[in-house]
Structure formats: structure tokens, C-alpha cells
DNA sequence: TAGTGGTCTAGACCACCCC
DNA sequence: GGGTGGTCTAGACCACTAC
């Protein structure tokens, strides 16, 4: 008698079929090699004796873990793993280069808008004053990686809207306005890809993302920019160096 | 003639039905108030004229965003939002208290193991030497929040296995071994809840998580611990302060 | 025991890519 | 056109909770 092993009893780990399926799929990924093609979803369903729905659930999880990528009309392929980006006050460009990746940045939008109450508070300007909103698509080696939306106070940086796109934003701030970044508060959380995100990143709606929100200050502690970005959760991880608050 | 609006053309944002459903569900959440109950999934499917599968997909997304919680045999409830935790070299306990939450920590496991090559390298001990592995379940106000697995070199901290659980680990390290943390490298990425995670956290398998990996060093730059934790992505966000690498 | 959420199925149809 | 992934459906059965 006695419930022996595998009883899946209460408070124990239950393993759904879609989760167990991942083991089999992972070995297919290993066989395929980086970027190699996997069998189609219908073929996988037949091979493992499950429904296509269950296969897709397992594939979606593996995709979220960065182990494979799916391309709509094309197929499923072994994944490329995650890129590590350092959380620091440096440019995206420098950062990607240090990983041997070729970074590009497309300016999707540069518009002047009127500061809403929340943005006004964050940028320390009066409500309704002019704010420059920049929207960029960051890519590495041609693959879209992140969408970044920045807001800067035009009252502090008159004419900035004419100067973006030329060179690095932080370079422009220093050369034309004598402003240098001192510190920033960066928040990280999970999020899901919106339809707009998915369209730009070649993602699926609802894909797991990392949302970062950066509030940057200059060396005089005045707010300089407020940035919200979403990074593909299957392609990125972030690393930060923490120092002791009580240094001895 | 002429595709007017709503044509959902190429390269534009397509909005799947499950995503659009979220708007309707969000207003139900608002009506319910924090912690309030929502109608059952079958009732929602009928009300919105979609299949239960589609309702569940939308609910799963809202859950990942922290807007609601589901309890197995019980029901679906309006969510509690996210807690912000600072990335710093301080204890979980201090951190939660500063948010007015009552933190508890259950020691699930404290075992001595033999260092695998990767752990040995991280802790700067020889392969095969003794390592203490601690596994904790962190809760706030009674709700499970995170699972934390730490590893410390017993060769540097003899007898440590007898002293854990009494008080804070960092306190013990200081009082008995004269060791104080100097800095740490912390990595953050998304992950999915394993069956074991889900069982401990009262989560669903595959739920979105934040995985942190911390490599801590003492004031002499010697490695002290290596910690891997998973936090519920629907309950947590992290914030870090970044400082300029060129302080001029 | 009745109701709730959790898993799985088989099949339909659409959108996209490539030949 | 034919294949691939993306979305949605209707329904079955299981596991858990509350009564």
C-alpha cells in the first residue's frame, strides 16, 4: 500500500504535461545547434503524442527562456541565449560594442509635447511646459531588442529637438548645454509585450519583457531625462554592482 | 473601397481578442476594489461572448501584470499591485519593514554539500570542498514572495551551519567571523515558475518571475556567498541607484 | 457536493513567408 | 500555393476549496 513515489501529492510539485514536454524539446534544440531549425508544431505534436496546443505552450515557455525563437510564416529555431547589459550611466552603443555586437538605433519619433502632471513633476518643470519626447528602436546585429521612450525638458535644453539624431544624446547635452549626468534611479520589472511592442520587435503579443524606467539627474542633482524602455526578456539580462552603504 | 481605419494593416499593431478583453476585465477589477472577487471564468466567457480559453489567456496576462490573483478552488480577485525593493546590500527584513510590510523567512533547508566546479569557482574554494547551502522562503504579510538559495564556503566559515536560523546571516558573519560585505554583482532576468517554485509560492507553473543572482564579496574582495533567488514577477519590482563612472 | 480554477484536446481559420 | 506560426473555439476532465 502506501502511496509510493510519483504520487503527485498535495503541496508537492505537480508537473503539467507542457512542462515535461520541454525536456524533449530542449534536446531537439541541442541537436539543431544555434539558429538551427526545429520541426513544425504539427509534427512535434504528433511525435510527442500531444495536442498542438500543448506543444505551443511548451514552445512559448522555452521562447520566454531564450532557448528558441519563432518566426511567423517561417519556422521555429534554436535560440541565441541572453545578452548581459550593465546597468550604468553609459550609452547603449558603448555597451553593445563591448559585447562584440553591432548596435544600431532608429529614431522612430521626436515630438514636442505638453508636460502632463506626472512628467512635469519628474522633470521639475511646470505643468504644460514643452517636453521633447524621443522614441527609439534599439537593435543589435540587426535584431530589434528594445524600445526606448525618453522625455527631456525643452525649457532647460532649448533647440534640443534640432540636434537629436546627429550624435549621442548625452554628448549633445554636454557639448551644447554643459550638462553631465551624475546619477539615476533605475526601476526594473517584468511586463508583457503590447501589440505595438510586438509589431516593432517582431515579438508575440504578451511575450515576457523587462521594463526599465530611468530617472536621470545631472551633477547638480537636477532632473535631466525620464526614460521608459522595454527589452525582450528572452534576449536580455541586466547586471548591477552594489556597494555597501556603510563603508566601514 | 479604401481601407479606412481599423484595417489592422501590415507592420501595424494587431490586437488579438485576448488583449482587447483586458480593458473590460480591468474595469471589473476596478469595480471589485482591492482584493475583491471577480465573476468566475465561465461567467466572464459568456458575458464577453468569447471562449473560456480566451478569458483565461487575458486573465493570465493581467495576473502577470499584478492586477489580479487567482486562487485554485476559490476564485479570481483584484490584485494588490507591486512592491518595490531596493537593490542594495541589506537584509530582506529591513527592506520589507521600510515598506510597512511584516516580513517572515522560513528556512526550508540547510545542508552541507560538496562544491561543484562552478560553485567552487564562484566561492574561490577548491572543487569538492564543503559548502553550506541555505534555502529560504521569503514572505511578506504572510504571502510567499520569493525563494532564495544561498551558498557559502564552510572552509572560511567553520561551524556556520550551527549558527544559521538564529539571527540574520550577515550579522552572524560579522560577529563570528569578522566579515563584512563590501560589494556584490547582481544579475536580473526574467524566468518562469518551475513546478517546485509554483508549489512553494502558490503560483502557477510557468508564471512570470524575476530571477536574481547575487555574488557577494567582503571588504577584502574575497567571495562570501552566491545567491540565486526567484521573486514573483507580479508582486515585485526592483530599483537601483546608478552613479556616474566618471565623477567629474 | 457543488463551484472554482488548471490542464488538455481536436479542429477551424487567419496571417505571414517562401517558392 | 503550400507550409509555418498565431488565434480562437467548445468541450472534457482533473484538482482544489468551501460548505
Automatic annotation (TrEMBL), chains A, B:
<keyword id="KW-0238">DNA-binding</keyword>
<dbReference type="InterPro" id="IPR000524">
    <property type="entry name" value="Tscrpt_reg_HTH_GntR"/>
</dbReference>
<dbReference type="Pfam" id="PF00392">
    <property type="entry name" value="GntR"/>
</dbReference>
<dbReference type="InterPro" id="IPR011663">
    <property type="entry name" value="UTRA"/>
</dbReference>
<keyword id="KW-0805">Transcription regulation</keyword>
<dbReference type="Pfam" id="PF07702">
    <property type="entry name" value="UTRA"/>
</dbReference>
<dbReference type="InterPro" id="IPR036388">
    <property type="entry name" value="WH-like_DNA-bd_sf"/>
</dbReference>
<dbReference type="InterPro" id="IPR036390">
    <property type="entry name" value="WH_DNA-bd_sf"/>
</dbReference>
<dbReference type="InterPro" id="IPR028978">
    <property type="entry name" value="Chorismate_lyase_/UTRA_dom_sf"/>
</dbReference>
<feature type="domain" description="HTH gntR-type">
    <location>
        <begin position="11"/>
        <end position="81"/>
    </location>
</feature>
<keyword id="KW-0804">Transcription</keyword>
<dbReference type="InterPro" id="IPR050679">
    <property type="entry name" value="Bact_HTH_transcr_reg"/>
</dbReference>
<protein>
    <submittedName>
        <fullName>GntR family transcriptional regulator</fullName>
    </submittedName>
</protein>
Amino acid at each position: 500500500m502506501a502511496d509510493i513515489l510519483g504520487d503527485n501529492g498535495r503541496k508537492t510539485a505537480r508537473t503539467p504535461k507542457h512542462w515535461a514536454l520541454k525536456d524533449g524539446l530542449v534536446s531537439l534544440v541541442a541537436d539543431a545547434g544555434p539558429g538551427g531549425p526545429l520541426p513544425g508544431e504539427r509534427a512535434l505534436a504528433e511525435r510527442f503524442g500531444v495536442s498542438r496546443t500543448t506543444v505551443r505552450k511548451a514552445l512559448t515557455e522555452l521562447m520566454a527562456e531564450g532557448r528558441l525563437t519563432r518566426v511567423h510564416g517561417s519556422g521555429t529555431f534554436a535560440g541565441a541565449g541572453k545578452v548581459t547589459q550593465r546597468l550604468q550611466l553609459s550609452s547603449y552603443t558603448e555597451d553593445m560594442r563591448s559585447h562584440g555586437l553591432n548596435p544600431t538605433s532608429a529614431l522612430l519619433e521626436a515630438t514636442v509635447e505638453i508636460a502632463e502632471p506626472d512628467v512635469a513633476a519628474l522633470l521639475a518643470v511646470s505643468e504644460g511646459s514643452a517636453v521633447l519626447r524621443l522614441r527609439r528602436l534599439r537593435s543589435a546585429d540587426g535584431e530589434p531588442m528594445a524600445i526606448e521612450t525618453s522625455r527631456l525638458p525643452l525649457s532647460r535644453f532649448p533647440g534640443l529637438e534640432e540636434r537629436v539624431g546627429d550624435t549621442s544624446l548625452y554628448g549633445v547635452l554636454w557639448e551644447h548645454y554643459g550638462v553631465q549626468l551624475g546619477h539615476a534611479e533605475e526601476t526594473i520589472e517584468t511586463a508583457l509585450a503590447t501589440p505595438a511592442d510586438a509589431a516593432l520587435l517582431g515579438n508575440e503579443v504578451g511575450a515576457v519583457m523587462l521594463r526599465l524606467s530611468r530617472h536621470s539627474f545631472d551633477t547638480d542633482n537636477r532632473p535631466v531625462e525620464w526614460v521608459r524602455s522595454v527589452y525582450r526578456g528572452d534576449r536580455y539580462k541586466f547586471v548591477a554592482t552594489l556597494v555597501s552603504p556603510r563603508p566601514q
